[in-house]
């Protein structure tokens, strides 16, 4: 990705200095060295990516097949002016404005059982951020059975106006974390509410940072 | 008895697929841990539950 930098943005060193002050130098070193794959760039994935970009993650692999739609704007990190362009392109643009020294790899493709392993192979941690339940289960099964050395942070249940406090992070097994309330399903006719989806995305992003910095649940 | 999601169920002798068919679980939306290990989907038909097994079924909800 080429950088389109205006003259008055902070230098890479300035931005890193601020992050080191807040996270601690040793922790920031681990965050800055990490590669995270975000599978699905909707309400979960776009918000996870923004959180990790702001935290100074080293590299993001962004994967989605879809284009920005007007129905996405209430909860996803896109602008009205980006409706119609691919989510990978739109999110890359927005992330470069937020974190210009972040390394990005984008794949405008649907993740399937055939291509998943090669797409996410370079990542240390994989975030499952799809909206479709079958796709979530497919990726989770695949990562946990075929890539036992990877960490997976998945999400299940974040629709509706239920309490924010029902969204939680559970460590299911050593390298598998699951965020969400575990029960609310859009297929039951419950709509997605921006703040609650963002809470779940924040749980996922925070879990990534905790894994990288050696904090455990 | 098999412990399934924390509850004792009389499912010993059934395959995982047979047990799933008796529930509301949709096999394409789930992940299964058997005795702490992820059970690959291709083994649901051939894995027979035994007394003392611990099964955890995680059903994914839609939305994201």
Summed up:
The complex is a heterodimer of chains A (217) and B (64). By secondary structure, chain A is of the alpha/beta class. Helix content of chain A is 38%, strand content 16%.
Shape of chain A: globular
Note the main sheet of chain B.
Answer: 5 strands, mixed
Summarize the helix and strand pattern of chain B as letters: EEHEEE
> How would you state the average pLDDT of chain B, rounded?
96
Cross-sheet strand order for the largest sheet of chain B: 2-1-5-3-4
How many helical stretches of chain A?
7
Classify the beta-strand content of chain B into a percent band: 25-35%
Quote the distance from N terminus to C terminus of chain A: 35 Å
Number of helices of chain B: 1
Low-pLDDT windows of residues of chain B:
none
Domain tally of chain B: 1
Q: What's the CATH architecture name of chain B?
A: Roll
Largest interface, by Cβ-Cβ below 8 angstroms: which chains and how many residues each? A-B, 38 and 18 residues
What is the CATH-assigned architecture of chain A?
Answer: 3-Layer(aba) Sandwich
| Spatial extent as radius of gyration of chain B | 11 Å
Which regions of chain A are unreliable across 5 or more consecutive residues at pLDDT < 50?
none
How far is the first residue's CA from the last residue's CA of chain B? 36 Å
Number of domains of chain A: 1
Main β sheet profile of chain A: 7 strands, mixed
